[in-house]
Amino acid sequence: MAGNNSLELEIHSLFQEGLPLETICDEILSKYEKNDVISPFESESLSHFLILAGRIDLLFKFYLKCLRKNSLAQFPWGFLTQAVLQTEAQLSEELIDLIEMGLKAQPEEESCYKAQALLQVIPTLQSRLQNYKQLFEGEQLQTKMKLLAQLNHNRLYQLKDLEEQTLQQLVKVFPQDLEVKLLHQAHLEKKADEILARIRSTPRSISSRKRVPDETNPETQDFIENLRKQTLALANRLQTEQPDQIYNLTMLAMQFDLFDLALELIDKAPVSFASEWLKAEILYESGRFLDLLKHIETIEPKMASTPESTYGAIYLKAQAYYGLGQRDIAIQLLEALSNKVTSYRSTEALLYEWKTL
Prior knowledge:
This protein is mainly α. It has helices at about 5-15, 20-35, 40-50, 55-70, 75-85, 95-105, 110-115, 115-120, 125-155, 160-175, 180-190, 190-200, 205-210, 220-240, 245-255, 260-270, 275-285, 290-300, 305-325, 325-340, 345-355.
């Protein structure tokens, strides 16, 4: 017995008084459960005593109470493992909760759930921990997509203060995320009003106005409106008869640069991976780069995890940022993509073009 271990001395004194084991356990536990902080030496000594006394049930309850109070300076994983291996009763839900609470309180203590013996006794522990990890990652992805959608909304409507708040929240929650870093860098370089000014002055916008040179001509307006009505009426019939043919109508509208009509048509087509990408192409060709970014953020969670879909999403994002006048952020996106996917020559060609302009 260590001379400086007051707990062992106290237990020895109670035995000397002739008290029954049950009473000694109750007195010791009632005393230490009231403590605000229990040192590693005390928790190990108490664990050792309760295991030798065969009162593993009391030990588990003691651990739970301490975790709820956050009074354990260090969780005694070794004694917990020893106690679990010695118990012959069916492991309760309470014990699983105990271990999960301990892991949450002290995640750096990896010895518990990595111990092969403990995993053999509690086969559900590993799967539950994995489920928690997947749940956390899913929640993180949803949070990121929600914040990105909110950021694009604030930019679209020039809500500068809200844009700043949303971006700062993204940086705080996802400090190591490449896309968030690039967004933050772009924000520091160009404010939202400058981005919108670039949209109005971009050559693509000028070319959009040239597509209908006599747009003020009543005859031209009537022709386009009649064409729109007839095409939409045909699309409504095709929705029930041959819905796949709506794709052909959409691409025909794109060939004549009728992008508003093309967007109306694609919304009537069957929702599929192909239709989402065709809509993205329409937004890009019509120079609606903010809407394109928002659309990509919406469809990314639904996309299959394939190199092609990942490549396509980042490639379109880069072109959208370039269209917004954010040349540096567009180049960085393509460079990051090129480093991971080296087999696409179009990436290298576009990078060379952007860097030499």
